[in-house]
């Protein structure tokens, strides 16, 4: 009999602790002296944290960017893909924007969103030109005056350093909104 592969080391964030984490992260943003005009959630993982942080900061303007990358635990698509519906980018013009996600794991999803908001394209090539073969044929015409990022967790392997992080871990994180499998029957 062969032993089953052990599950990856996991960090569990229950609902109660999540509420405290979101509030702590909002306090960190506030303490920095920078306040956003608009909070953008990276869907789906960033939806719940973004709403909580927006409430805590008193920010009523919110938007979402739907980005697909992770397909399962430790399984990803080759590249992050921005999916419809797309954000009405006219609301970005001149705004201070806080992008919120649950985790900067590889950091690739957050990097795509931040590149869109800072440079108008999802992933600049090393020479600064946008790739015509990008999986995300999207351009942002109206750029914010400043975009910053906030995540609950940052992992050591992340290729981007978020502006605000609640905790750092190298473990797989079980968030309360994704801890259970999807409802498939009644």
From TrEMBL:
Keywords: Glycosyltransferase, Transferase. The keyword Transferase applies. One of its GO terms (molecular function) is glycosyltransferase activity. Residues 11-179 form the Phosphoribosyltransferase domain. It comes from the Bacteria. This is Phosphoribosyltransferase. It comes from Candidatus Ruania gallistercoris.
């Amino acid at each position: 009999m062969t032993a089953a592969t052990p599950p990856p080391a996991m960090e569990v964030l229950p609902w109660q602790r999540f509420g405290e984490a979101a509030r702590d992260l909002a306090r960190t943003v506030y303490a920095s002296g920078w306040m956003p005009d608009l909070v953008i959630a990276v869907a789906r993982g960033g939806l719940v944290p973004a709403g909580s942080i927006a409430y805590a900061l008193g920010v009523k303007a919110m938007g979402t960017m739907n980005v697909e990358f992770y397909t399962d635990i430790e399984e990803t698509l080759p590249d992050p893909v921005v999916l419809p519906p797309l954000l009405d980018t006219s609301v970005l013009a001149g705004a201070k924007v806080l992008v919120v996600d649950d985790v900067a794991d590889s950091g690739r999803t957050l990097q795509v969103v931040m590149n869109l908001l800072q440079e108008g394209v999802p992933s600049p090539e090393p020479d600064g030109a946008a790739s015509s073969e990008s999986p995300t044929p999207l351009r942002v015409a109206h750029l914010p005056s400043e975009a910053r990022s906030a995540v609950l967790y940052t992992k050591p392997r992340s290729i981007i350093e978020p502006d605000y992080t609640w905790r750092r871990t190298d473990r797989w994180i079980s968030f309360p909104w994704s801890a259970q499998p999807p409802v498939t029957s009644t």
